[in-house]
Design goal:
The complex is a heterodimer of chains A (about 290) and B (about 325).
Chain A lengths: L2 H8 L8 H21 L3 H18 L14 H39 L3 H4 L5 H33 L3 H10 L2 H29 L4 H12 L6 H4 L3 H8 L18 H23 L10
Helix pairs in contact in A: 2-6, 3-4, 3-6, 4-6, 4-8, 6-8, 6-12, 8-11, 8-12, 11-12
Chain B lengths: L13 E10 L2 E11 L2 E6 L6 H8 L7 E6 L7 H4 L3 E4 L11 H12 L3 H14 L15 H13 L5 E5 L7 H16 L3 E5 L3 H7 L2 E6 L2 E6 L1 H7 L6 E7 L2 H8 L5 E6 L5 E6 L2 H15 L3 E6 L4 H8 L9
Parallel strand pairs in B: 3-7, 3-8, 5-6, 6-7
Antiparallel strand pairs in B: 1-2, 1-4, 8-9, 10-12, 10-13, 11-12
Helix pairs in contact in B: 3-4, 4-5
Classes of the chains: A mainly alpha (about 290), B alpha/beta (about 325).
Chain lengths: ~290, ~325
């Protein structure tokens, strides 16, 4: 038997917790999975997908003068247009479906490729596998969709004068808004990622549960206040620097403070990941019946 | 069944205790009690008999419906501990996408938790053992079936396990690679490792195995060394021995003085006969006496069905399974 692992196992690291070993294993999983996520054949679609909002914002820089989206003359209108694009297109569509694709494939893709058993046959706690897979999905989605948000913001500012931009960014609310948009994108990846990884792990056909979540999130604005809070989009919506107008049929609910929204999302994510970690311990490899 | 395991302690054995596995209403294996000692143990049985189910249970890929399994004292529910000393080369001919042979082995050594430098040297050592150094930097997707089999074998032994489970490990290998692989298995067994092998190629298993486990329809039919399993079944299936000698008719009539001889049949060419006996040792004693006392000129004495093939045929073939 080899040495390095044994030594690590024997080393007293606070009871049975072997954080050093687990961290190395998470890094090894990240190394393999991130490479697969970015360079695999399945990645092509996601690149195209992530580029759509950026392309749309680029096209808006050619908008007619005096239209609501004319960035140069109607800055307030342009910001509202961006807020709508951010929430409806980037968050509710790109981040949602992008995370569905990336995170559901973390386990489901391995089952389809019949290669999940290699992880199960490694000297690896299955909980660590869940953590490693989740972080790899998170790294991929955060890089991709932060670039989407950043690229879209770039074209929002691109059409304006340089001094006006500097003024708005550094002497006004601009920089804070940009960082908040990025933060909300990352939180979206964190929350949706956990949900879709769970779905990918435990549903043979993950499309149906993913669609159920999609409609739940989209119809959120119509739900009564109590149900509204049982969703990810509600918290992301309240965190947005310029909230999207949800229309006349939306139920009115008091905005949740960021001090509640952010921890709530993180706690929710931790709970979903814990459920996944508990469930995967009894998970069986049966490619034949998939 | 605990043949030949008395000299070992629990943490040197693989123990199945009353293991059953059902896939819904379909039986995988039922009430398996089995103790496996170091050396080469072969699981023998027709397709669908439960060999792979036993291997998957042992490695934690599936969970038993009932019973407990201990591999050198460790439960398969604790993969972090168990796979430090265990490797499994299963039948799934599939690989993570886009990897070269080297990356495949190296990456999973990192997942085991080995530091990079050590993982590199271990990966190369395993690749050398299966003779794939030249192809190591080629994508696995472009490998032939035999190469894929070898790279999976390399992956399962790369972390120097002391228990190696191999499901049909010789499938797809050319004769030279087969010989090399068998030699590797024998060497590993000589080093005190557990090797649990399933295969359909009975004569190869017989050459290698210290112990065989015959399984059919989810039940263990027999377990032990080939000879001892054959002996157990002597009453039901008397052993056939071919004898080439002069005066075969007289030999036959004298042989019947022993109670153990149940049948004698003259060979077509009149230069020999087949004897069926329920006690081979007592027959061989009688044979010596006959040669000494009556001067028979015996050229050849050879058991016809004292092998795994015959054991398989008697225990499984007749019950409708056998396609080994």
């Amino acid at each position: 038997m080899n040495s390095a692992i044994e030594l690590e196992a024997a080393r007293p690291t606070g009871g049975n917790l072997q954080w050093g070993l687990w961290w190395r294993q998470v890094r090894a999983i990240l190394r393999m999975e991130v490479k697969k996520n970015f360079w695999g054949k399945r990645a092509l679609l996601i690149y195209v997908f992530a580029a759509i909002p950026v392309l749309l914002m680029f096209l808006l820089t050619f908008a007619d003068e005096d239209s609501a989206a004319d960035i140069t003359r109607n800055w307030n209108g342009a910001q509202e247009v961006f807020a709508n694009i951010f929430e409806a297109l980037i968050l509710r569509t790109m981040v949602f479906f992008g995370c569905a694709w990336i995170f559901m494939n973390l386990f489901r893709g391995e089952v389809v490729d019949k290669s999940l058993h290699y992880y199960f046959l490694s000297s690896l706690r299955r909980e660590v596998l869940v953590a490693g897979k989740y972080f790899s999905g998170l790294v991929t989605s955060v890089i991709l969709f932060s670039l989407t948000t950043a690229g879209s913001l770039f074209f929002l500012y691109w059409a304006r004068d340089y001094p006006a931009n500097v003024n708005f960014l550094f002497d006004g609310p601009g920089l804070g808004q940009c960082l908040t948009y990025l933060g909300v994108t990352i939180l979206g990846c964190i929350g949706y990622g956990a949900v879709f990884m769970f779905i990918g792990l435990f549903f043979r056909n993950p499309i149906i549960p993913a669609l159920v979540v999609y409609f739940w999130e989209w119809l959120n604005f119509l739900l009564p206040p109590v149900l509204k809070k049982i969703s990810i989009i509600h918290y992301l919506h309240t965190l947005a620097p310029v909230p999207m107008n949800e229309g006349p049929f939306a139920t009115v609910v008091t905005a949740t403070s960021p001090w509640i929204s952010v921890p709530s999302l993180l706690i929710f994510t931790a709970l979903v990941l814990t459920m996944a970690a508990v469930k995967i311990r009894r998970h069986e490899i049966s490619y034949g019946s998939e | 069944m605990t043949n030949g395991t008395a000299e070992y302690t629990g943490d040197q054995l693989i123990v199945f205790e009353n293991i059953s596995k059902f896939y819904g209403e379909i039986l995988g294996v039922n009430r398996v009690n089995l103790t496996i000692a170091p050396g080469i143990t072969s699981l023998v049985g027709p397709n669908g008999s439960g060999k792979t189910t036993l291997m998957n249970l042992m490695t934690g890929l599936i969970q038993p419906s009932r019973g407990t399994i201990r591999v050198l004292g460790v439960s398969p529910d604790d993969p972090q501990r168990m796979f430090r000393f265990m490797g499994y080369c299963g039948q799934f001919d599939s690989f993570p996408r886009g990897m070269t042979g080297y990356e495949f082995i190296f990456s999973f050594l990192l997942v085991h938790g080995f530091p990079k430098k050590e993982a590199e040297s271990m990966a190369w050592r395993a690749i050398e053992r299966v003779d794939l150094v030249e192809a190591a930097h080629r994508k696995v997707a472009g490998y032939s079936k035999g190469m894929r089999q070898r790279i999976r074998l390399a992956q399962s032994i790369a972390h120097d396990p002391s228990v190696i489970v191999l499901d049909e490990p010789l499938n797809g290998l050319d004769p030279m690679a087969r010989d090399e692989t068998k030699r590797l298995f024998r060497q590993l067994a000589k080093d005190g490792l557990h090797l649990i092998i399933s295969s359909h190629i009975l004569h190869e298993l017989e050459e290698m195995s210290d112990t065989i486990v015959l399984i059919n329809n989810g039940y263990i039919l027999a377990e032990g060394a080939v000879g001892s399993v054959r002996e157990e079944k002597m009453e039901e299936h008397p052993m056939q021995i071919v004898i080439r000698c002069d005066r075969p008719a007289e030999f036959a009539s004298r042989a019947f003085t022993s109670d153990s001889v149940v049948e004698a049949q003259l060979h077509e060419d009149k230069h020999g006969l087949f004897i069926k006996t329920r006690n081979a040792d007592s027959f061989y004693t009688l044979l010596n006496r006959m040669v000494a006392e009556h001067g028979f000129n015996v050229e050849t004495v050879a058991p016809v069905d004292d092998n795994l093939n015959a054991v398989y045929h008697y225990l499984i073939g007749s019950s409708g399974g056998g396609q080994a």
